[in-house]
């Protein structure tokens, strides 16, 4: 089971000088070792598709006794607690995720929806795009189809501004 994403990230302060941008990039590059980055950034992520050929839920059972899954996709760009486990008390609650896409009777939907978040002078260490997919049943409770955490490779992807920013290569997300 795979969720794929494209990531775009750029400094949202266009007046910022190249030297400052360079230092931002360096800061991000060093973020594994250094404790925190502070700055003005926009992060965009496109959730491109879900591959779930066999129509399985997160627990390995089938979505439905008959027919394909009915996936409903929401996502959140998380710089506050990017490493926390899904559903943990220190992780962002699902109610704050942005609903992006829903389809009935489709195991492998093309999603193609973009989510955006601005970081305005906040401190962060890492950024993760969290994707939460449920199998939405007409009756009864919804089942968890999967949770994916897609780490943003900030070192490669930070553009100086919106025009210079480039989408990353499509990448699969960890479950
Ligand atoms: Ca179901
Ligand atoms: Ca179904």
Largest sheet: 5 strands, mixed
- The beta-strand count equals 9
Mass-distribution shape? elongated
Q: Please tell me how large the radius of gyration is.
A: 17 Å
Structural class, from helix and strand content?
mainly beta
Approximately what portion of the residues adopt beta-strand conformation? 35-45%
Task: Please tell me the CATH architecture by its name.
Answer: Sandwich
**Regarding CATH, which class?**
Mainly Beta
- How would you classify the quaternary structure? single chain
Note poorly predicted spans: 14-21, 30-34
Number of domains: 1
**What string, H for helix and E for strand, traces the elements in order?**
EHEEEEEEHEE
The DSSP helix count reads: 2
InterPro entries: C2_domain_sf
Keywords: Signal
Signal peptide: 1-15
Q: Which descriptors would you attach to this protein?
A:
mainly beta; four-stranded antiparallel sheet; 9 strands; Immunoglobulin-like; signal; 2 helices; binds calcium ion; C2_domain_sf; five-stranded mixed sheet
Can you characterise this structure?
With 175 residues, the chain is mainly beta. It has one domain (2-162): Sandwich (Immunoglobulin-like), CATH 2.60.40. 9% of the residues lie in helices and 42% in strands. The chain contains two helices and nine strands, in the order βαββββββαββ. The protein has helices spanning 18-29, 154-157, and strands spanning 2-11, 37-51, 71-78, 98-102, 110-124, 128-135, 143-151, 158-159, 171-172. Strands 1, 2, 5, 8 and 9 form a five-stranded mixed β-sheet that branches. Strands 4-3-6-7 form a four-stranded antiparallel β-sheet, with no helix packed on it. A hairpin with a 7-residue loop joins strand 6 (128-135) and strand 7 (143-151). The longest helix has 12 residues, at 18-29. Residues 63-64, 67-70, 105 line the site of one calcium ion. One calcium ion is lined by residues 63-64, 67-70, 105.
């Amino acid at each position: 089971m795979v969720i794929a994403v494209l990531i775009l990230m750029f400094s949202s302060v266009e007046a910022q000088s190249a030297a400052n941008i360079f230092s931002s990039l360096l800061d991000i590059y060093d973020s594994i070792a250094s404790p925190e980055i502070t700055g003005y950034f926009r992060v965009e992520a496109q959730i491109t598709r879900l591959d779930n050929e066999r129509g399985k839920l997160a627990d390995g059972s089938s979505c439905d006794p008959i027919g394909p899954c009915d996936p409903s996709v929401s996502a959140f760009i998380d710089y506050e607690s990017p490493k926390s486990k899904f559903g943990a008390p220190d992780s962002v609650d699902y109610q704050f995720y942005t609903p992006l896409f829903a389809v009935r009777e489709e195991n492998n939907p093309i999603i193609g929806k973009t989510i955006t978040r601005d970081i305005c002078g906040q401190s962060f260490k890492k950024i993760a795009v969290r994707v939460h997919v449920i199998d939405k049943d007409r009756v009864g409770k919804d089942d968890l189809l999967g949770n994916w955490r897609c780490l943003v490779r900030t070192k490669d992807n930070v553009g100086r501004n919106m025009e210079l920013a480039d989408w990353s290569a499509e990448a699969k997300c960890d479950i």
